[in-house]
Amino acid sequence: MDDQLLNALADLDEEKTINLVKEYLSKGVSPLKVVELCQQGVEVVGKRYCNGEYYLSDLIMSEEILKEVMVILEPLITSDIPSNGMTIILGTIEGDIHDLGKNIIHYMLKSSGFKVVDLGVDVAPETFVQAVNQTKAPVLGISVLLSFCVSAVKKVVDLLMESGLRDQVKIIVGGYPVNEIVKDYTGVDYYTNDITKLFEICQMLKDELPIPEETS
Q1: Where in this chain does the record put each B12-binding domain (predicted)?
Q2: Total domain count for the chain?
Q3: Residue finishing a domain among 77, 107, 128
Q4: Nearest 5 degrees, angle CA 105-CA 67-CA 95?
Q5: How far apart (Å, rounded) are the C-alpha atoms in residues 140 and 137?
Q6: Nearest Cα to 73, choosing from 46, 39, 43?
């Protein structure tokens, strides 16, 4: 049964995806399990895009489907989830308006007790730096889908260094075009194009990093 939802999203079947989400929830499947299945479907979309089977328009379509899914699932995240004390800043880099992966990781982090500061899409490097300075968040996650936007990620790192904030924050870049070359070029701490791996990195940093006092 799980494959049905995964495949429906991977095949960009909007109506079937929404109906299956509602069906799963009515049968008592946890919202987090539904998110996990949708994430797996999104990974298939990403692979098809990388293989040339899908185009940017297909990625945009998958984003729209996911947004509808989130409308259903978001209210089911109870407000009494205990905070684990760590704040993470998320945003899609300047020049890129895709938020599919960012939205999934936002949901997963929030459901695990992280406080998420979501800056949205097309975020200027200066805005990332300002957010780090204001929130004192120890982790910054930058999403990038379009390869020509990678240089803007480097600018974020450069500005953090110029501002004296670089040593205060671990930077993760995620998205389809990222690899070891991108990591070395931009100067980030971690990279991944796998949403599950990104979540694991955040969990690891939560255990390793000191939790700063919250800034109002």
Answers
A1: 85-212
A2: 2
A3: 77
A4: 70
A5: 7
A6: 39
Q: With CA atoms as reference, report the closest residue to 136 among 88, 189, 104, 178.
A: 88
**Following DSSP, what letter does each residue of 154-213 receive, concatenated?**
HHHHHHHHHTT-GGG-EEEEESTT--HHHHHHHT-SEEES-HHHHHHHHHHHHHHS--PP
Are residues 25 and 114 located together in one domain of the fold?
A: no
Residue identified by tokens 């204001």 is: 134
User: CA 203: distance to chain centroid?
Assistant: 14
User: What is the domain range of residue 72?
Assistant: 4-77
Tell me: do 50 and 98 sit in the same domain.
Answer: no
CA Rg value for the chain:
17
